[in-house]
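Exercise 7. Given the encoded structure of a 245-residue chain, write a plausible sequence.
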């Protein structure tokens, strides 16, 4: 898809351009946020869901074409049932809201494991919002290794005996979505936790100690400013270096 010129300038003076098409968020730190306040973890997730709504709206406002959020991983099933149920209930409520007319909501991950009621709601939202100018990917029961195994199994079923990179990337859950330019992880841990291992090959990574429920638009602006201060070489040389050997 063509990048439509976006004339939005952030409060910090940064102008967003075609270099920043896709931001992905690893929304971590809900449990610790609750613990610090002496609250049950479930309330951390509730506050995290509110932060997600705010940040998603902010990214829409500043015209980020693709936004992905890591909401629930294939490994998060290890958590107590009570916590998992609370997270899925929040998702269920989210599916009932009215969506911004500019945004296509898509789910990435293996949603086949959910009950029919939730699956039907997910596909109804995807259908209702399809074909819009901005994309919000919600990674649910998502794990990058499971995603790659799924791709391999599909390729085997298709009978391929030789493949190229695009055979893999086009069959990922992210499909035609460009790779994330910037991955932001809140909560202070410096790792990807099985998130977009293929797609993150050349992503810029930004880590912050801010816990996800405390995430603000100012911090998003800070991450974007940091992104624009980086030199992305993709294995090549800086422009001025390659032009003046
Ligand atoms: C992220 O917050 C949300 C999910 C993984 C579902 P956590 O629940 O992992 O919060 P911490 O890392 O325990 O603080
Ligand atoms: C990553 O957070 C997954 C999500 C944000 C959904 P985790 O809390 O599950 O990651 P680890 O266990 O600290 O690596
Ligand atoms: Mg965590």
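Solution.
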């Amino acid at each position: 898809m063509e990048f439509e010129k976006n004339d939005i300038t952030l409060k910090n003076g940064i102008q967003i351009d075609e270099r920043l098409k896709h931001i992905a968020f690893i929304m971590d730190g809900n449990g610790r946020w609750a613990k610090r306040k002496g609250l049950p973890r479930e309330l951390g997730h509730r506050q995290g869901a509110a932060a997600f709504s705010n940040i998603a709206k902010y990214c829409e406002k500043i015209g980020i074409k693709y936004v992905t959020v890591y909401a629930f991983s294939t490994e998060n099933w290890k958590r107590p049932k009570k916590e998992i149920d609370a997270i899925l209930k929040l998702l269920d409520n989210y599916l009932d809201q009215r969506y911004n007319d500019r945004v296509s909501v898509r789910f990435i991950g293996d949603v086949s494991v959910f009950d029919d009621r939730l699956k039907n709601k997910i596909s109804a939202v995807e259908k209702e919002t399809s074909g819009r100018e901005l994309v919000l990917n919600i990674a649910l029961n998502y794990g990058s290794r499971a995603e790659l195994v799924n791709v391999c199994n599909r390729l085997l079923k298709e009978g391929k005996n030789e493949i190229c990179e695009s055979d893999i990337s086009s069959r990922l859950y992210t499909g035609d979505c460009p790779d994330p330019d910037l991955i932001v992880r809140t909560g202070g841990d410096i790792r990807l936790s099985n998130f977009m291992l293929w797609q993150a090959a050349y992503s810029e990574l930004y880590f912050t100690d801010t816990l996800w429920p405390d995430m603000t638009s100012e911090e998003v602006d800070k991450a974007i400013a940091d992104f624009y201060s980086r030199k992305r070489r993709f294995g090549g040389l800086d422009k001025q270096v390659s032009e003046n050997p």
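Remark. The two ends are 35 Å apart (CA to CA). Students should compare their own answers with the one above.
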